[in-house]
């Protein structure tokens, strides 16, 4: 039988840091920003020991430091994590009959044909550990969605199988927000429809869902509630739809000219990334976080163009929408690109596997 395995490295970034500094084993370790909790930065990852204090990814570093005052706080070292990730993915691709779809630094789908997926998963875990000294958890499923969700039940260092046969028993009474792809906003909209649990989502009337979310996404959410969707692991290299850069400023930007210069500097970096891909720009996005912590996002579709000056001119229309009377603590710029000519079915392969 063809199976989908979801491989997720346990506390990946923290684990890489502990390998480099064995004396940190067993200690609460937090990785984020430049390792300075007095600066504006967020937690990239926390060891299980730090998580016991309530520290989690995306939390402001200063709050994490208060929750775990004895934690070791380290700066982000992206090249080290990329190198470790590449080694893990190489191990996965070397497994017998494996088709590997990379989702990010620390996770991937593996498609295999086997009569004993648990044994295959255990051998895969051991192969990763032997080669990299990193532990991983493996979810086994008959669809990508079920495999991805199964991993959470196997953590840490475990294996769990979730299929059509036990989906209702395991997931039926759980809140919809526990589904991969359902966040707080969608969960709130579903509650307004009277849909709170996974089983209720799977049984929800199509008309109610399509009215609320549109014909495509409405049916997609219903299928998600049933654990359905694709069962095909796609190893086509991931192609970005766009590039983005953002910066959190240690001191709020209050001067209008300074804000505009900062936004254009980010855009310049984005367009350098776009130039490396060699595809024209078809859309722009601007993210602004005002002090103390309110975020606004502005987007704009533009006629397909590779003219850098034209893109900058269009971006300035977005920049002009920044409130001139509010200090800015974060700016982000994004450029969406045209699909490559060899995109299949009008899409590029995505990390999210949708």
What overall geometry do the principal axes of the alpha carbons give? globular
Largest sheet, if any?
5 strands, mixed
User: Whole-Å distance between the termini?
Assistant: 22 Å
Spans of at least 5 consecutive residues with low confidence: 346-354
| Beta-strand residue percentage | 15-25%
Mean of all residue-level pLDDT scores: 93
Supply Rg. 22 Å
Give helix % range.
25-40%
Q: Output the structural class.
A: alpha+beta
Q: Work out the helix count.
A: 13
Beta strands, count:
12
Strand order within the widest sheet? 5-6-1-7-8
Would you list the SSEs in sequence order as H and E? Answer: EHEEHHEHEEHEHEHHHHHEHEEHE
Task: Summarize, please.
With 354 residues, this protein is of the alpha+beta class. It is 38% helix and 23% strand.
Structural features, described:
The protein is α+β, with helices and mostly antiparallel strands and 354 residues long. The model is unreliable at 346-354 (pLDDT under 50). It starts with a strand and ends in a 17-residue tail after the last strand. A hairpin with a 2-residue loop joins strand 5 and strand 6. The strands form three sheets. It has a five-stranded mixed sheet. Helices cover 38% and strands 23% of the residues. It is built from 13 helices and twelve strands.
Please give a handful of descriptors for the protein shown:
354 residues; alpha+beta; five-stranded mixed sheet; 13 helices; 12 strands; 38% helix; globular; disordered C terminus
What's the structural blueprint in terms of helices and strands?
Layout: E1 2-9, H1 12-20, E2 29-31, E3 45-46, H2 48-51, H3 61-67, E4 72-74, H4 78-93, E5 99-104, E6 107-113, H5 117-132, E7 136-141, H6 144-154, E8 159-162, H7 167-171, H8 184-192, H9 198-203, H10 206-213, H11 215-225, E9 242-253, H12 256-277, E10 281-290, E11 294-305, H13 308-319, E12 328-337
Parallel strand pairs: 2-4, 7-8
Antiparallel strand pairs: 1-6, 1-7, 2-3, 5-6, 9-12, 10-11, 10-12
Helix pairs in contact: 4-5, 10-11, 12-13
């Amino acid at each position: 039988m063809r199976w989908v395995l979801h491989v997720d490295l346990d506390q990946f970034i923290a684990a890489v840091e502990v390998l480099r500094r064995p004396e940190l084993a067993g200690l609460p370790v937090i990785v984020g920003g430049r390792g300075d909790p007095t600066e504006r930065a967020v937690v990239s990852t926390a060891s299980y020991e730090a998580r016991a204090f309530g520290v989690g990814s995306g939390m402001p570093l200063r709050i994490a430091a208060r929750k775990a005052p004895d934690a070791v706080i380290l700066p982000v070292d992206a090249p080290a994590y990329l190198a470790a990730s590449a080694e893990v993915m190489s191990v996965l691709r070397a497994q017998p009959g494996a088709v590997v779809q990379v989702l990010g630094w620390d996770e991937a789908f593996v498609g295999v044909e086997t009569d004993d997926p648990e044994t295959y998963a255990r051998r895969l875990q051991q192969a990763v550990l032997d080669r990299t000294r990193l532990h991983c958890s493996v979810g086994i499923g008959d669809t990508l969605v079920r495999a991805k969700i199964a991993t959470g039940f196997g953590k840490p260092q475990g294996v769990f199988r979730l299929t059509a046969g036990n989906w209702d028993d395991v997931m039926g009474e759980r809140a919809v927000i526990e589904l991969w792809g359902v966040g707080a906003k969608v969960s709130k909209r579903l509650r307004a429809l009277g849909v709170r649990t996974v089983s209720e989502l799977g049984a929800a009337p199509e008309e109610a869902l399509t009215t609320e979310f549109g014909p495509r996404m409405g049916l997609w959410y219903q299928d998600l509630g049933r654990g359905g969707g694709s069962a095909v692991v796609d190893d086509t290299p991931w192609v970005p739809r766009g590039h983005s850069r953002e910066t959190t400023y240690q001191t709020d930007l209050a001067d209008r000219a300074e804000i505009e210069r900062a936004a254009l500097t980010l855009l310049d970096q984005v367009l350098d990334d776009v130039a490396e891909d060699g595809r024209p720009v078809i859309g722009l996005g601007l993210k602004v976080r005002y002090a103390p912590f309110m975020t606004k996002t502005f987007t704009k579709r533009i006629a397909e163009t590779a003219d850098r000056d034209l893109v900058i001119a269009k971006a300035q229309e977005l920049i002009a929408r920044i409130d001139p009377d509010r200090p800015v603590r974060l700016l982000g710029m994004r450029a969406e690109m045209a699909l490559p000519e060899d995109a299949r079915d009008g899409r590029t392969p995505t990390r999210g596997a949708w």
